[in-house]
Myomesin 2a
Amino acid sequence: MSVKAYDVNSDYVLVAWKPPNTVNEAPITGYFVDRCEAGTDSWVQCNPAPVKVCKFPVSGLGVGHSYYFRVRAVNSAGISRPSRKSSKVTAIDAAESQRLQGTDEGVPSAPGKIVATRNTKSSVFVQWEAPQHLKNLLGYYIDGRVVGAKEWFPCNHKPFRHNRFVVHGLIPGESYVFRVQAVNIFGLSEESQESSPIAVEPALATPSAPYGITMLSCDGSSMTLAWKKPKHSGGSKVNAYYIDKRDADTLVWKEVNLAAVTERICTVDNLTEGTFYEFRIQAANLAGVGLPSAPSMPLKCEAWTMEEPGPAYDLGFREVRGQSLVILWKAPVYTGASAVTGYFVDMAKKGSSEFVTLNGDPVSHRYLQVTGLEEGSSYVFRVRAVNSEGVGKTSELSEPVCAKALPGTTEIVAGVDEETGDVFLSFEACEICETSKFEWSKNYKPIGDCPRATITAKGRTSRLTFTNPDKDDLGRYSVVVTDTDGVSSSYTLTEDALNTMLELSYAIRHPVVPLKHNLNYEILEKGHVRFWLQAVKLSPSVSYRFIVNDKAVTSGEGQKISHDVASGVIQMTVDHFTRANEGTYTVQINDGKAKTQSSLVLVGDAFKAALKEAEFQRKEHIRKQGPHFSEYLDFTVTEDCTVMLTCKVANVKKDTAFHWYKEDDEIVPETAPNVMSGSCALPLPLFSRKDQGVYKAVLSDDKGKDTSVFDISGKVFDDIINAIARNAGASASELVMQCTPEGIRLQCYMNYYTEEMKTVWKHKESKIASSEKMRIGGTAEMAWMQICDPSDKEKGHYAIEISDGVTTHTRTFDLSGQAYTDAYEEYLRLKAAAFAEKNRGRVVGGLPDVVTIMEEKSLSLTCTVWGEPTPEVTWFKNEQEVASNEHTRVTFDGGKFASLVINKVTTDDSGKYSINVRNKYGGEFVEITVSVYRHGEPIPEPKLGQPRTAAAAAAAPQAQPVPPKSPAPAKTPTPSKPQTPAQSAKSPTPAPSPGTKSPTPPRSVKSPTPPRFMKSPTPPRK
C-alpha cells in the first residue's frame, strides 16, 4: 500500500493510500491508520474502528512536529502487517509550508524508463531515468515481482539516492519484472512503468581459460589431448575450443584447428617424433573467445608401447550430498595390449597425499557411488584402468569436491499420472538457467531418443515417462541439469516398486467404482430381506441394475430398488422372502468411465439360514403385536449369591397374566409378578443341583400369549455356579482355625457356599482329596476342612482355591510353629473332655419327675444308669442321703438298675428325692418330687407344672410310676449336711472355663456339624 499525506495543516493531515493486491484472501473490510512521531519508535493507532475508504483525516497533531504514517488492512482472518511507512510529514500551517517550500511543493513525478539486465546467477542490475520534476528528491523505492505472480515485494527499505540498483537474493533461473517510485518529503510518486521480464542469470562474458591439459595417447606422429572445462563459463554455454601448439624450445604459437572443437578431447596430428611440444587452449561462448590457458607441460611425442592401459579422463561428479556422491569418468583412449576390464578409484582428502582405494575389486562400469563421507569436507579422486596385463596410468586428479548438498536439493520422485496412468520419474531442479537442459541416464548411460521412454521438461521440472514399462526398465536412473553447479539426482527402480506402480496404472487406465462394502444381505424387522452394497463415491449420473439368476429385476410389487448418492448405498428390498428367492444376486454399476459389479451367491446352507432368519423375524413381528418378552429369560447373581431368573416384558396391560413354571409345575413366588414394571424376576436362593430343570415364564392376555423357556442344566448350570463362585470368592474371608475333639478344622466364611462350586484345598501346594484323615465339607455359610487326629505331618501351609472359570480366589493359613502347637494342645484338651463326657456316670431313663401316691401304698423308684467304669449310686431325700432299711430299701443290680422302694408310705415320706450317679469322669443328679395324700383326699395337682404324674391305686399293694419320655431339667443339689460328701454334688471333671479360648478364636458362626458327645460334663435333663 502506498501511503501518502495530503492537506497538511498545523493540527491535522489527510492520509490516503492504495488498497493492497489480493489473490485468494478474504475481502478487506477496513483499515487502521497508525502514526509515529519522528525520532521515536512508538506507533499510535489513530482510528478506534476500521475505516472502509482509503483515506482518513488524522487530527490532534502537534504544531511543528514531524510524523510518519502507516496503514494496516483488516479482513475476516484478522489484521495484516503494517504497510511501509510514509514520508515524514511536518504539521505546519499551509501558508507557512508554502513560504518554506517555495515553488517546489508536491510529490515528484514518476521515474522514467526502467531497464533490468543480467548481473549474476542470483541478482539483477536495475537502472532507470530520473523523474522530470525532482522537487527535493530524497531517493527511490524499487519493487520486484515474479513473472506470473500478483504480489510485489520491496527490494529496498530506505530511499536509494542513485538511479541504478542491484537486486540480490533472487531465485536462479526465475524471471522477474521491476518498477520504481520516487520519494520526497511530500510522499511517493506514481509507480514507473514495469521493466521487461528478465531471467536471473549471470551476465554474459567470455569464459575463463581451460586448464589441466593431459595427454591420453601418442603414436609417434600425433597426440590425443584432453582438458578440463573453464571454471567460469561467462554466463553462456561454452560451445567451442581452440588449440595452439609450439615446440618447447620456441616462443611462436601455431593454431592447431581453425574449426572449433566442441568436445574437450582432440587429436593433434603432424607432429615430429621425439620432439617436445607445449599446448594452450581457449574456450568460446556467445560473448566471444576467452583468454588462452597457461601452456601445458612439455609433452614428448613418443609412441606408447606399454601393455597396461592409459589414463582415464574427464572425471566428474553427480548427486553430491552430505555423506555421498557419484564419480564418473571416461575410458582411456589408449587401452594397451588388451581391452580394459575394470577400474580402481582412489580418494584422499583435499591437501592430503594419502589415497585410499575405494573398491577392493575392479568395477567394470565407469561410475562409482562413494559413501561414508564427512559432510563439509573436500575430497580429490583419481582413477586407474585395469586390463589383463595390469593396472595402467593414474588419471589426473579430479577437482576438489565438497561433500555438501546444494541448497534446496530435491530427489527424483516415482509416480503414476492420475489422468493417463503413465508411470513416470519426475525431478524438480533447485537451480536452472535459460540454457539448462535435463539429461537423463540409465545406469549412467545417456537415454537420448529411446522408444521405451519419453522425456519432457517444463520450467524447473523434467519428467521421464515410460512407454510400456516392464522388467527391462529396471535399473538406476539419474538426471543432470546442465549449466548449473551440479544439480543432479538418481533413483533405483526396483521390481517391487514397478509392480506397485503398474497396479496403480492399471487401476487408473481401467477405472472401477470403488466399493466400501460388496453386495451383502440383511434380514429386516418384518422378515423383509435387504440386498445392498456401498460405494466409496457415486455421482448423480450413476446407473445400475440388479440381476437375479441371470434375469434383470426392477422395482415393483414385492421388491423395491433404490440408491442414495450421498452415502453411496444401492439396495433392493424383498418383502416376502421364500424358497423361490434362492440363487445368485448381482449388481452392475456404471458411473462415468468407471464400472464395477458385485455378486452374492445365496444357495444351500447359506440360503437356508437366511430363509430361517426371515421366517423367524416374520413370526417375531407377529408375536410383538401382543404381550411379549422384549428380553427372554436369563439369570443374574446378586451380591448375596441369590440366583435371579429375570426377563423383560413389553406391550402389556394391567390384566396381563404372568406365571412361572418348573418342569410344567407352577411356581407361586412370595411376591406376585408386576408386569407393568416392565420386568419380572424369580429368586432361587441357596442355589444348588436341586434347582436344575426347565423353567418357563408364560405371558398372556386377550391380545396373545408368549412363552420364554430357560433350561438350567449343562453349560447354563455351570455358568450360574461360576457366577456364584465369582461373588462368593470375592467375599471369602481368610482361613480361620477351629479346634474340635476330632482334630483341627480350617474354615473359610463367604456369602454362600455349595459343593457344586469348584473349590480345591491344598497342603504345601499339593491337592487334598477328602478322606478319613482329611474330611472336606461345608455349609451355606462356609467351606471347611477337618484334619482328624493331627500329627506333625499335617503341619504346613494350607490354602483353598475358589475358581469361577476366569479368576481363582485363594485364601491361606499357615499351620506351623506356635500356631500348630497351641492348636494341638487345644485339640488334646477337647478330646479328653469329650472322652470324659462320653464315659461319665448318668441316668439313662426310668424316673418320673413327680410322683403322687396314696398313703399305705408302696412306692418303687427304679431307673437305668450307665457309666464306664461302673458308677456309684446314692439316693437323697431332701438333700439327705437315704439309708437302706425295712421301710426304705435301696438296691443296685448288675451295675445297671438302681432302685429305691418305700414300703407303706406315709405323709412323712413326702418330699424331694434325688439320685446321684457318678464315677471318676463325672456324674449326674436327677430329682423326683413325691407327694403322699390320705384316703378320701383328692389327688393333688402336680407341682412345678410337670407334664406327667404317677399315682398309685388304693387297692394295689405298691405303685410303679411310668417315667416320662424326656426327663425334666433339675438343678444340681447342694448338700447342707457334713455327712454328705462334697464331691458327690458335682462332676469330678469340671467344664471348661468360659474365658478359655481356642488358639484361633472362632467366629460367631458355630460349626455346622458338632459331635454329639460335645456336651457339658453335667448337663441338666430336659
User: Anything to note?
Assistant: The two ends are 120 Å apart (CA to CA). The CA atoms of residues 856 and 905 lie 5 Å apart. Residues 817-839 form the longest helix (23 residues). The longest strand covers residues 922-933.
